[in-house]
Write a structure and sequence with these properties.
Order of helices and strands: EHEHEHEHEHEHHE
Number of helices: 7
Largest sheet: 7 strands, parallel
Number of domains: 1
Shape: globular
CATH superfamily: NAD(P)-binding Rossmann-like Domain
CATH topology: Rossmann fold
Oligomer: single chain
Helix content: 25-40%
């Protein structure tokens, strides 16, 4: 197991690609603190397969363990508590996956200010706060891997104008710059900071925004078997191996070392 004994935090882990990443990390032996806004599974609540409660159950047979932690990443104090809880209970943090994000679609010239702010707070400020809180612990360890989940729409090119995605695209471009900046900042301490762009994934959030994703013929199923290998690769990195990079997995990788 490649991550046996490692402690990882994954935000936005109850559903979608965050759920797949949490399961993939646990499958490699990691202890995963899975964070999302709601635990779910409470008495009287509607049955929902995508909750932290069902994620913990889904990982019961895996080599690693998944623990649920309620955290709204738009609330700074929640992130501080998430990191503090992890250190208090497990003593270390080897991997941070900043996955929680808002995927929006609006007319490019019709975005309300409060909507724009919500996207930036969730997609950019929250990852910064998480890095700020985790970094001192990783510095003491002289090791760690931070993985920020980005998107192809953040890059500039002939195919970068995704309809209605200006706020999301701008937020992911900012996240890429945050990643490269922090990679340089934390390199002397042995900490890797990379971005992971998983490509077109048929998650529920993506299908809600664009129902045609599943018909594209180039989408990936939202499963740990498909999405996990790239994450496991980055989770093992240090400042001496791979850092400050954006790993694009727009097509099915044949193999990962």
């Amino acid at each position: 197991m490649k991550l046996d004994g490692k402690v990882a935090i994954v935000t936005g882990a109850s559903a979608g690609i965050g759920r797949a990443y949490a399961l993939a990390l646990a499958a490699e032996g990691a202890t995963v603190i899975a964070a999302a806004r709601r635990l779910g599974g409470g008495e009287g609540e509607a049955q929902d397969a995508n909750t932290l409660a069902t994620l913990v159950k889904a990982a019961a047979s895996l080599p690693g363990r998944i623990y649920a932690q309620v955290c709204d990443v738009t609330i700074e104090a929640d992130i501080v508590q998430l990191v503090g809880h992890t250190i208090a209970n497990f003593g270390r943090i080897e991997v941070l996956v900043n996955n929680a994000a808002v995927l929006t679609q609006f007319d490019a010239l019709g975005i309300a200010g409060d909507v724009w702010d919500r996207v930036m707070v969730t997609n950019v400020r929250a990852p910064y706060v998480a890095i700020r809180e985790v970094a001192p612990h990783m510095k003491r360890q002289r090791s760690g891997s931070i993985v920020n989940i980005t998107a192809g729409s953040a890059t500039i090119g002939p195919k970068s104008n995704y309809p209605g995605m200006v706020a999301y695209s701008a937020s992911k471009a900012a996240l890429n710059r945050l990643s490269s900046y922090m990679a340089a900042e934390l390199m002397p301490h042995g900490i890797a900071v990379n971005s992971l762009s998983p490509g077109v994934v048929a998650s529920e959030a993506a299908l809600k925004v664009n129902p045609d994703v599943a018909k594209s013929g180039r989408h990936k199923p939202c499963t740990p078997e498909v999405l996990g290998p790239a994450m496991i690769c980055l989770a093992q990195q240090t400042a001496a191996t791979i850092t400050g990079q954006i790993l694009h997995t727009d097509e099915y990788p044949k193999s990962w070392s």
